[in-house]
Structures are given as C-alpha cells and as structure tokens.
Amino acid sequence: MNAGCLLGQALAVDRDKFSELVTKKIEENPYIEIIKEEVTKINDEEITIIATGPLTSSGLEEEIKRLTGQDRLFFYDAAAPIVTKESIDMSKAFTADRYGKGESDYINCPMTKLEYEAFYNELINAERVELHNFENGGLFEGCMPIEEMARRGSQTLTYGPLKPVGFGKLGDVYAVVQLRQDNSEGTLYNMVGFQTNLKFGEQKRVFSMIPALHDAEFIKYGVMHRNTYINSPKLLDATYNLKGTNVFFAGQISGVEGYVESISSGLVASLNAIALYNKSASISDDLLNKLEDIMKGKNIIFDKHTMIGALADYISSSHDNFQPMNANFGIFGEENRFKSKQEKYEFLSKRALEIISSYIS
Ligand SMILES: Cc1cc2nc3c(=O)[nH]c(=O)nc-3n(C[C@H](O)[C@H](O)[C@H](O)COP(=O)(O)OP(=O)(O)OC[C@H]3O[C@@H](n4cnc5c(N)ncnc54)[C@H](O)[C@@H]3O)c2cc1C
Hints:
Mean pLDDT is 86; it is low at 5-10 and 137-141. This protein has 2 domains: 16-74 and 229-360, FAD/NAD(P)-binding domain, CATH 3.50.50.60; 82-220, Beta Barrel (Elongation Factor Tu (Ef-tu), domain 3). It has helices at 15-28, 58-68, 113-125, 146-151, 200-207, 232-235, 259-280, 285-290, 293-296, 307-316, 341-360; strands at 4-7, 10-13, 48-50, 74-75, 82-84, 94-95, 106-111, 175-181, 188-191, 218-220, 228-229, 247-249. The protein is built from 11 helices and 12 strands. The chain is globular. With 361 residues, the protein is an alpha+beta fold. Helix content is 33%, strand content 12%. 30% of the residues are buried. Strands 6-7-8-9-5-10 form a 6-stranded antiparallel beta sheet. Strands 1-2 form a two-stranded antiparallel sheet. Strands 3-12 form a two-stranded parallel ribbon. The structure holds flavin-adenine dinucleotide.
C-alpha cells in the first residue's frame, strides 16, 4: 500500500491509507496487544509512554496535570509564524530592543506609511481558516489574531504590536514589525504578535509584503487551533522521559509536530523505555560487558546533528515561548559558513546520514 508521495518539496500523505497501513502493521505485530478504550488513569509505577496527540481526551488531561504537576496543559491556540534568520533581508531591518532594554534579541522590520497601508489592506481582506466548533469560544481569550486586531481600526496595530516607538529617531518609519529570536542558536525568529488564522498561502503572500521579509522562508506558519502539549523544556529530558519518573511522552503531546516527527519521538521514547526496563533487570557483570548500551539500561540520546536528536534537543531545551516544532534545518543551529542554502543543506543531510549509519551499524 502506498500512502505517501512527493508533492513538490513536501511529503503528501493520504491520511486514510496512512492510518490503515499503520493500524495493519500494529495489528499484525505479535508482540503488541491492542486494547481499544479511553485511558484516564496512568499507573506511574509501570513504564508508560503517553502518545495521545493534540486532541488528548479531557479525562486523561486531568491525569497528565497530576503527573506533571502543571495546573494546565498548553493550548497551542495562538502561534506566530517562524522564519529563518538567513532569509531576512537585513539591509531593510535593524537589530535593537525597544527602549534599549535587553540585549538586542529583536530584529525590527520597518515600514513606511505607504508600505504599511498596502500591507494593512491585504491583511484585513486575506482568506482565513474556518475554525471547528470546539475551537471557538473561550479558547482564544486574551489572544487575538493579528488580522482580527487590524480589523478593529487602521491604527490599532501601529499603537499596538507594530508601534514604531522606543528605537530613537527612525525617519519616515510608520510601523515596525518585531521578530524575536526563537532558538538558542539564533537561526530562527518568530513574528511578535502575529498569531493568526490566515491560510498558509495567504500568510506567505501578505507577510512577505513587509520589506525585510520579501524573501522570508517560513519554516512554520501561524496557527490557531486546539493543540494539547506539555511544557516539555521544563518537564522532559532528551529521551522524552518525564524527569525522574517511569513515564515518557511521545508524539505531538511532547512538542513535536508532524507524522515523521511524532514517529521519531516514539522511537527515542521506546528505546529509552526499554533501557529503563533493563536498568532494573538483574544482569550478571559478565553478561553486562557483552551487551549493547540499551541492554545495559543506558539512555539513548541521538546526536544533535541528526534530525531525531535535534528535535529531542529542541523539546527538552529552554525556550521563552515554547511551541511544537517540526523537522527543519533551522533547528540544527549551524553557523552561516556556506556559500548557498543548497550547499548547507547537502552538508547537514550528509553528516546526519553518516551519524545515523554509525548508530545502525
Ligand atoms: C488536518 C490535519 C492535517 C495534517 N496534515 C499533516 C501532514 O500532511 N503531514 C504531517 O506530517 N502532519 C500533519 N498533521 C499533523 C499530524 O497529524 C500530527 O502531528 C500527528 O498525527 C501526531 O501524532 P500523535 O501520534 O502524536 O497523535 P495522533 O495522531 O492524534 O494520535 C493520538 C491518538 O491517541 C488517541 N487518544 C487521545 N486521548 C486518548 C485517551 N485518553 N486514551 C486513549 N487514546 C487516546 C487519539 O484518539 C488518537 O487516535 C496534520 C494534522 C491535522 C489536524
């Protein structure tokens, strides 16, 4: 059964065939027992992997709050787009913190009055995603999409997130879009205040009207939908283990996003669940010396220069504004020492494959 194909640069998946294939594989595996019921209690004396996804049932949410000691799970209700630093036109942007507070963590993208007006008109008329019923009402309180804020009046943004003040004299600048560093390596930046419900194509079209972002590479678009995930940077280590417990989280609830990313987190979590199990098994010293690390109960942490390792590192490292992350070259945090993007990506892919091959062998 063929469930996926390459569509341009993206991997397109027939969702029904894909789920059918995964279900079939699991059903055929003699080592897996399937129990089809909602889980609402976790016995944390036993080694457990929780992989209940972005729509984790409310019964289990309560249990996860108890396990993690968090009074609320994150709702990915409002994420702003993220762009790569190397795609920002720095000849049209400047680095500074408003009122000189901080250490110039922001890249500022100025617009003249004419540029702002053109951007504004497209923003308020751009096509939006329709929300599901369960995503409406209450969930987005206190967090308004940028297009909604703009609709309240042409000056709402220039007195709000786009206000051109706190930077000293800026000449004919009428509005300033701020980009905030999103990863510790400084290769990714998120658009401050740009949580949005616009369709992805519309985000690219409208946000690229900001002069410094005319060629911006969006590695994530803004979204506003329900998405349950835990505060992994605080709670998990790079093995997806809830620190100091028998519980692992995998899939989107752990803060990765996408099919392949969820699978990769499941692989790391399950290898480490086996290692944790073996740690408590009584094995003679003689046998221990002959065993692989995993059998000895040692953690399996993938190198950060592989995508599996980079994702695990991303979700378990601190972030000001943690949002689920998909696989992308930006999280490798490589310096800009390449002549072209192609050269860089080829280098990163080759190195990752070499490391992965050494793990396999
Ligand atoms: C419309 C849409 C389109 C998408 N398209 C793509 C795409 O093209 N490419 C891509 O890479 N990603 C895509 N994604 C994202 C992708 O679907 C998710 O990142 C991925 O499925 C997450 O996997 P998961 O195993 O963590 O969660 P899920 O796939 O959601 O699986 C979790 C399972 O746990 C079950 N569950 C929840 N609570 C309980 C409970 N208490 N007890 C027992 N079971 C429970 C759920 O019913 C569900 O079956 C898309 C998402 C959406 C919503």
